[in-house]
Amino acid sequence: MKKISKYLIAIVLVAMIITGCAKTNNDSNVDVNETKNMQNEELKNSDFVGKKFAVITGTMLDKIVEDNLGNNELMYFNTIQDAIEAVKNKKVDATINDEPIMRKFIAQNPELSMIRPPLTNDNYGLVVSKENPELTKKLNEFYDQIISDGTYDDMIARWVDNKDTPDMPKIELNDKNGTLKIAVAAVTEPFVFYSTNNQIVGFDIEYARRFAQFMEMDLKVVDMDFGAIIPSVQSSKTDFGSALITITEERKKMIDFTKPYYIGGTSIVFLDSKTSAEQTSSIGFIDNIKKSFHQNLIVENRYKMVLSGLWTTIVISISALIIGTILGFLICFFSMSKYKLLNWISKIYITILRGTPMVVLLMIIFYVVFAKVDIDPVVVAIIAFGLNGGAFIGEIIRTSILTVDKGQIEAARSMGFSQSGAALNVTLPQAIRTGLPVYKSEFINIMKQTAIVGYISIVDLTKVGDIIRSRTYDAFFPLIIVAIAYLITIGFFIKIFDLIYKLTDKRQRGVR
Fold first, then answer.
1. Contact 484, 300 (CB under 8 A)
2. The domain that contains 75 carries what CATH number?
3. What confidence category does residue 243 fall into, taking pLDDT thresholds of 50, 70 and 90?
4. Which residue in 81, 271, 412, 445 could disulfide with 422, CB within 3.0 to 4.6 Å?
């Protein structure tokens, strides 16, 4: 029966892959400047008044839609890839984003069209903390220099006006004056994205490296979700941020901007029903699967990224479980103590940790608690998930102990066991057997919740899926691969917990 279930799951997954692959007919050699859908002459921006839009969380795109098109219905997504897929799947009528970025998506998705001229004309700047005006001054001096010597025009020609993906020029750096940290969202080709060797490259990265060379400093690139860039700079986790961030008066109140390093605009992208109807794949199902498998996992050794992201997820999950278990025993002791102060401490801890969404707790610890501390984000994630797990595991331990009949403890004491001896030999073994299934569920929950660690610039399994999607423009296959990786890994740990349960239960030891 178990084998049949596994086969059924495999069939469902393959069907999902086929469904996704059958919709994909991308051509990586499409000339961006010659794409016929780049400009739609039949529709104009005003035709999208009152339509449903997909916008990116943490951007000004919602305000741009509201200011220029009225009170439209908005759906929020974390990445541009998700917004594009919402358009392609007709969940929304259109999306809006920076025109130079959308060019790449339209070249790879010919069923999409872009409205010209752009809805807005915008200035984009680098963001710097208000506490570091000297860095803003230096960045402006550097901008003036590369404008005057022609370097800037060369960079535009190499990255923005080039239909192909160029190689990153070699820019030698040294750490004579320390190291600069730049926060980016590496899913915005051609400005910031992952290259064929899984290195973050693009116009913004070349710009940052040339600036680091100008400052005689080394450069560290920190990839994160777009919405986390400004908080990262504000909290001094990074020195400056870049990802086509629009300069607005509202943002100027909380962050400093450099001179505009790029002038562009936002454009509306929608699904062209005529072109979409014409787009049919002539490739068979099996060939589509092979193509997607090769493109998403083999090309550029992307499977190594998946394995690396999976390892990060496992490390965070297991480490957080260990910390959560230690804290759980402590919280359980406080909860069951006869001292009211300890009872109140445990109640406050459990109330706060169980009532705070994990993503909020994670960002508070990273951007507030450790704001001025140079700490590895993975360590922060372990601490955050460990603290959260401690609240739940503490309750698991407490309720498991309470299920043990007090009469057994009294009988053990009458037989000569000390209080601690009775707890170790009578209470604990029975509590473990009772609580282990729930404890197993808590570990599974921790592992699945680690999917949010990308908010603090950790490249875990889920983040790897987003990175691959940003390079291949395949929305389905990377997600299926990530889901399968989670499924297999969680299944493996479930087997381990089940084995432990059998070893701790005399009734189960003989069951095969």
1. no
2. 3.40.190.10
3. confident
4. 412
